[in-house]
């Protein structure tokens, strides 16, 4: 039996567990199980895989995407540059155990974004500067798209929400919400930007996938902007995780 799992805290409803269990069933993948491991203290992580050699890999979610790096022996190029890990493989040789960390969020974001990009999408506004933004910023740099980070505090970004005006919105036709504002159950909330300046030249991308259409995206659609939620990004990174793990079985 091969064990895979998700570590984070707290862990409520998990997309990952449902996704992989359905995948295993539909594709007749046997002898692989996936479960949730709610770990508040990241120092408990080593006991989890260290005492059970059936573990071959993990997903990592908040709040451990950065702190787990202390337990990683090798980082992929993108994980090193982003400074966050959401996928881990466990390698065992003789009695030595080594871990490699990856960031597949960047892969999922890039693959889901690029088909929507047009020539005029040269500058982006990134709403929020938390952990979710790290893979986004890495991808924008890779794609040659300049960006400005919008935060509630001037210390955490290039500008604050109150500084956004018509000129700023006009000059940034790609707007990406990396904040949790608008996530279920707070579906009546959205980032505080001047939506009246959004046009049909804009692309609004929300990392949130629940609800399917956030208020942020509704405002964009009302102004004829192209819109995209984070669900495809989630699917793409999940499949990339499986590809990475499978090569380690």
TrEMBL record:
GO terms for cellular component: cytosol. Residues 6-88 form the Shikimate dehydrogenase substrate binding N-terminal domain. InterPro entries: Aminoacid_DH-like_N_sf, NAD(P)-bd_dom_sf, Shikimate_DH-bd_N, Shikimate_DH_fam. It comes from the Bacteria. The keyword Oxidoreductase applies. SUPFAM superfamilies: Aminoacid dehydrogenase-like, N-terminal domain (SSF53223), NAD(P)-binding Rossmann-fold domains (SSF51735). GO terms for molecular function: NADP binding; shikimate 3-dehydrogenase (NADP+) activity. Pathway: Metabolic intermediate biosynthesis; chorismate biosynthesis; chorismate from D-erythrose 4-phosphate and phosphoenolpyruvate: step 4/7. This is Shikimate dehydrogenase substrate binding N-terminal domain-containing protein. The lineage of its organism: Bacteria, Pseudomonadati, Bacteroidota, Sphingobacteriia, Sphingobacteriales.
